[in-house]
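Re: [ENG-882] Designed sequences occasionally contain unexpected residues at chain ends

Forwarding the minimal case from QA. Structure tokens:
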């Protein structure tokens, strides 16, 4: 199962939770107990290229 990260909107604490795939239900903040948490989308470690909208025709996987 993937680990999702949520950031508290009150104290900015990051809470990591092991979740089922696609389960983005925000947890309570582990630091202050607030329910005002938002999903963080982890970025895959890349090579260094920051080009997200390049016109390179590369379609792999799926
Ligand atoms: Zn908090």
């Amino acid at each position: 199962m993937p680990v999702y990260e949520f950031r508290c909107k009150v104290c900015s604490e990051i809470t990591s939770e092991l979740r089922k795939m696609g389960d983005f239900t925000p947890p309570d903040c582990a630091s202050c107990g607030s329910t005002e948490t938002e999903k963080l989308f982890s970025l895959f470690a890349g090579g260094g290229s920051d080009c997200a909208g390049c016109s390179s025709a590369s379609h792999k996987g799926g």
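QA comment: On inspection the terminal residues look reasonable. The pocket of zinc ion is lined by residues 8, 10-11, 13, 29, 31-32, 34 (CB under 6 Å). Proposing we downgrade this to a documentation issue.
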